[in-house]
Every structure is written in structure tokens, then in C-alpha cells.
Amino acid sequence: MENFHFFHPIEVRYGDLDPQGHVNNARFLTYMEQARVAYYKHLGMWQGGSFLDFGAILAEVRVTFRKPIHWGDPLKVGMRITRLGNKSMTAEYRIENVQDGSEFANATAVLVAYDYHQACTVPVPEEWRKKIIEFEGLDTAPHHLDNL
Amino acid sequence: MENFHFFHPIEVRYGDLDPQGHVNNARFLTYMEQARVAYYKHLGMWQGGSFLDFGAILAEVRVTFRKPIHWGDPLKVGMRITRLGNKSMTAEYRIENVQDGSEFANATAVLVAYDYHQACTVPVPEEWRKKIIEFEGLDTAPHHLDNL
Amino acid sequence: MENFHFFHPIEVRYGDLDPQGHVNNARFLTYMEQARVAYYKHLGMWQGGSFLDFGAILAEVRVTFRKPIHWGDPLKVGMRITRLGNKSMTAEYRIENVQDGSEFANATAVLVAYDYHQACTVPVPEEWRKKIIEFEGLDTAPHHLDNL
Amino acid sequence: MENFHFFHPIEVRYGDLDPQGHVNNARFLTYMEQARVAYYKHLGMWQGGSFLDFGAILAEVRVTFRKPIHWGDPLKVGMRITRLGNKSMTAEYRIENVQDGSEFANATAVLVAYDYHQACTVPVPEEWRKKIIEFEGLDTAPHHLDNL
Fold this sequence. Notes:
Helices cover 20% and strands 35% of the residues of chain A.
């Protein structure tokens, strides 16, 4: 998991905990979402302002829960984009302990470019593509066979 | 998707919505979790009372988001258990529109039997096994080769 | 508390609970908010669609917590508007047990009419005023001295 | 508001936002709750571990919302305890912008000492009393007339 170039710290909130005393499973998606927005901002894909002006929707997500998270656990969420398709991209996540590097969860998400004003999917903007390829050091091989 | 024997209705809350005007992706896990607790109660696997006395934890989840959910959409969440392992079981979910039967999302989860007082995984209790096999009409083939 | 003409049922979710096993205090606001949106819809003040086309913001809230709410408790939230000012109105809430009528919490909120497109407060629309006065059986005394 | 001796920073999450694009009103309670737990930890009133071993419940809360909070706003929540009764205490909160010191909201809460294992209210422990009086520089006048 040495290849994450972006991490975002998360403070566990009391409000994230459930009756079993640890962070509720749904909050793992909230943590990854927060890292995702920060990633978009960091790369300049989203400038701030209305979220209706930025379009990427979640089409699929898979999470593997490795160990419970408790209040006070120092977290960071790693995010990287590993695949750029025509209209979609694949992101990977790792929620880890800042101090000992142990993994709380890992996840994969498929994100689809979306125009909220037109209410339809769109090709991944060229500007995003350039920024992501550069940031992630992705291979720039042709993707014209990828129709998703 | 004709094989769900259990459905739980969900009312979409304003508090479930995000700045894009639809139900936030993390809430899909909350909806499925609510169906799961209701399922446990319905089958008599959990009698109510402290949640620390009931042990099943989420080890893995995969969700496919098919279309956005809005305030006022009439939902029900189907849940069924399709696999019973030694210490784990696989559940499937379908979030659908009560009126037209269309699908908002489907999901799969791996649940692991857990003893909160001992803080360790345990075999799926025989009592659960019987109730689930009967309710779901599962094949009762031996599962001793399944080590998960 | 006999004067509520509007009640909205709420299903307690597992996701509403906190490590102390009962509904987290912040969720009481979520429950009241849900009743509020349903009230607006019921009176025809909001027709559905984008929430950016409906403008009422919370300026102040006070909640008295009377007893904890647990999973499975059958709830309804009563809401009534008791004061109509120039730009604001006061709403009262009561979260109660459907079965025995006991009170979990009561609350008061000050709501201010707001135009999201103009980003400014506005007078309470005449149409709302009429609907609320009729529904609540409010006194129609002049309110021109009320500047809030 | 110069008298807060304790502040806790909060990162606004995308998951805190509602369809009106700003932080949902219920999350203000979540932010204050997070500051409260951090305050208890900071003063040594709670050592970490199970939240069932720490007992203070919210009996009443009042919040005044001054201006909306958006994603990216740098927040801190001030908390101070201003009254120590027999079984209860009053806390005050201020959610402010770290950069310009402007106020997003202020609030007051009444907290009641509670024994979760006995399920009953209890006197504010002497140890808490000492720590709070010292930290807040409270007047140590007798409180035996205060029965709440």
C-alpha cells in the first residue's frame, strides 16, 4: 500500500459511534467521501463553491473492514485513482492508523462523471484526466476501448 | 430478485440527503443495517435489549448504486441470507421502490458471528443456523469445508 | 399538549443510536426536521422537488430531553406553529410514544422565511400565512408590531 | 466571549451538509458533543475506554444559529462550564470561525450526572467538581441550595 500519494486525516467523532462502541460501518463511506472531496480540491478538479457544479457520482463501492475504529484512534484515509475510463474512474482507499500504519479498512469505488445541470453522465473531463494522470503517475495508454 | 422473503420499509429523511439533493451514499448502508436488525428480530435471532448481547459484525460489503433516491420515494429493503459458513454468512440486499418495483441499489455483505463479551469471532450459533435455513429455505448441505 | 393537529411517525434506526445505547441527542433535531418537512408538504407550503425552492431556516431551537429513546420505541413527532411574525414563525414539537402517549422530548424552534436564490430573509409568504392560520386555528390578530 | 478556556477544532465533512448546501442544523449538536467529550478528556474527567463508564446526559439544549457553515470553513467549538449544581451543570458553547473569529452559533446545555450501571442520576462527582472549578476559575460558593 506504499503507493498512495494523497492522505486526508479524519477525526473520529462521538457521533460516529454506534451501540457497539465503535465507528458505525456507514461512517467508513463518510470518511472516504471526505477524503475524496479533499482529493478533488487538492488536484484542482473542484474549486469550492456549489457541489452542484462538480459532477462525480458513486456507481459502486466495496469495503473490507479489517478492524474496528474507536474514539481517539488517529486516522488518515489514503486515496488514489488507479483507472481512468471513458466516463468512469476507479478509486482505491485505505483507512489506516496514523501512528502504527495498521489498516482499519480498504475499499474500491467506481466513480462516474456526471453533469448535474443536464442530469446525465458525461465523459471524464480532459482537464481532470490530465491532472489525475500527472498526480498519480498513471500510464497514459489509450483508453478508447474502455466504454464504461 | 423474486426470492426475498423479508422486506423492511424505510422512510427517507431530509437528514439523509446531501448537497446533491439525493440520499447520501453512506445512508444506503444505514438502510441495509436497519433491515438487518429487523431481520434478526423477525427471525428471533435477537430478542431486543442490549446490542452488546447480539454479535454479528460486518466484514465486507459491496454496493451497486443503480439510481438516486429522493425525499418521498417509497422504499423497502429486501434482505436474504444466501450462504451459511462456519463463522460467517453472506447476505444480499435490494433497495427498491415499493410502487414500481424498480431497483435503487443492490448489495452483498459478509457478516461474521462475534462475541462482544469475549471480543472474538465465534461459530454461527446453531440456533441461528436453524432459523435461517428454515426461513430462507436454504439447502442444508454440510458446511464443514467452509472455514471462513 | 392536546393541541397538536399534526403528527409524523418516526422509525428509530440502529444508525440513530450512540454508544450509550439510546438515540443520540442530535437525532432529536433530525426527527423534528423530518416532521417539519412533512408538515410543509401536508399543508401544501412545499410541493416537493428541489429544497432550494423552499425557504425556511432554523434560527433558534430549544429541546428538553425527558427520557431516552431506544430501538423499537414507536414514535410520533407532533408539530404546530404557534406564532406567525413578519419574517419568522415559532414552532413547537413533542416527541412521544405512540402507545402510551408519554413524552420523550419537547422543543421550540424559531423559523425564518428565506429566499435561497436571493440569499436573504423575506416576509413569511401570504400563502403560508393563510394555510397555517387555517390549519392551526390561529388568531388572525394584526402582527404588524412584530418585527422579527 | 473572551472567557472560553477550551476550544476544539472541527473539520466540516461533506457528510454534514444538507440539500441547502450548508451544514445541517442537527450537526451543530454533534460538533458541540465532540467538543464536550474532548473537554471531559482534557480535564481528566473521562479517561477513555467505554462510554458506559462515564455518565453525563443532556437534559436541555438551546442553540442560536447565527450564520450558515459551509464545507471548508475552519471551525473551533468553545466550551465552558458556568454552573455546577448538585446533580447538574450548565455548559456554554460557541462555534466560531478560526480565522476571523466570527460566530456561527452559540448554545447552552444542561448536563446531568448519570450512572449508566445503576441507570439513575447521581450527584456531580467531587472529583469533577474540583477539576471544573479549577479549570474554569469558578467561584466556589456553596451550592447546597441548588437542587437540580
